[in-house]
Amino acid sequence: MNNNIRPADMKRINTPQLAEAFIAEQVAQVQAQVGGKKVLLALSGGVDSSVVAALLIKAIGKQLVCVHVNHGLMRKGESEQVIEVFKNQLDANLIYVDATDRFLDLLAGVDEPERKRKIIGGEFIKVFDEEARKLEGISFLAQGTIYPDILESDGVKAHHNVGGLPEDMEFELVEPVKLLFKDEVRVVGRALGLPESMVERQPFPGPGLGVRCLGAITRDRLAALRESDAILREEFGKAGLKVWQFFTVVPDFRSTGVRDGKRAFDWPVIIRAVNTVDAMTATVPEIPWAVLQTITGRILAEVPGVCRVLYDLTPKPVGTIEWE
Ligand code: XMP
After folding, report:
1. How far apart, in whole angstroms, are the C-alpha atoms of residue 106 and residue 207?
2. Residue 189: count of CB within 10 angstroms of its CB
3. Which CATH fold topology does 212-311 show?
4. What are the φ and ψ backbone dihedral angles of 64, each rounded to 5 degrees?
């Protein structure tokens, strides 16, 4: 039997009761698979890896070793939330690696989008490998593979991640949510007590803010990006807007402004918001004018080095969701 195929009679997990039953079943299964051995997990703070972490903490407690690599391209408060939820609240065995300088030094002066992605992806694996090598007695690697990963890419997420580890390190995989769809993973996450902001997190690319700080990343523009993105998220939340994905972008060109009676030559911030079903095509929602005005006012007042705010009206196609 191929255990990568969802059984035809498997119920859609859409109630807390069904989630509880799933959790109980997986806890027993993981305990049987792992025994007294140790499991390693790269915990990004995304929905899938967070739910796997919470599930495994319930099943095997401190036999799970979570590694959170902060590549310096996280959104505001995200790494802090990972530490707060998993280390402080769930008492997890969590290794936090602040690799910000390593990533930003490597990325300095690199302006080609695909090259930026390769550097970020490659360095991520390197940092994770280094941490894994420091640990002793790890027998399993846990992953947040979900069913669409298996359906769409024949398990590429799994192969890719494992393939990134040194060949002399052999791990058996633990993938407790691999037969679930995204909405089911969220229901399970909620039943495990994860905060709503984590369970309902919008999609966030692996290279993070790196592909939104356009061209060669600089620390000043990255800071402006992180602050403006936080303001956007806060105001969309306050307004109760239901939008699939939204974020800010900071281009690598300046624009003229006037502040306190003096000329400024600062960065623009672009607001990007899209609705989509599968990210293949996307439409741009009509955001209430008052909300856009509030966001614009706050970004101009609160984010240093920004003198202009724009709203991107481009649907996909022709424009992609990300700017690079
Ligand atoms: P585009 O920009 O291609 O984005 O319209 C479609 C969806 O994919 C996300 N995206 C990425 N996710 N690594 C990721 O993990 C990437 O390099 C990457 N590039 C784009 C994007 O945020 C959107 O949800």
Report:
1. 14
2. 25
3. GMP Synthetase; Chain A, domain 3 (3.30.300)
4. -90, 130
Q: Which atom of ligand 1 is nearest to the CA of 320?
A: 5
CA dist., res. 79 & res. 88, Å (int):
13
Provide the CATH number for the domain formed by 16-199 in this structure: 3.40.50.620
| For the CA of 245, the nearest atom of ligand 1 | 24
Which residues, 6 or more positions from 224, have their beta carbon under 8 angstroms from its beta carbon?
A: 250, 267, 269, 303, 304, 305, 306
Q: Which residues line ligand 1 (CB under 6 A)?
A: 117, 203, 205-207, 245, 279, 316, 320-322
Asked if residue 169 has pLDDT above 90, the reply is no
Quick one: which atom of ligand 1 is closest to the CA of 316? 5
- What pLDDT, in 10s, does the model give residues 178-226? 999 999 999 999 999 999 999 999 999 999 999 999 999 999 999 999 9
CA 217 to CA 168: how far, in whole Å? 35
Residue having the nearest C-alpha atom to atom 16 of ligand 1: 205
User: Distance, CA 239 to ligand 1 centroid (Å)?
Assistant: 25
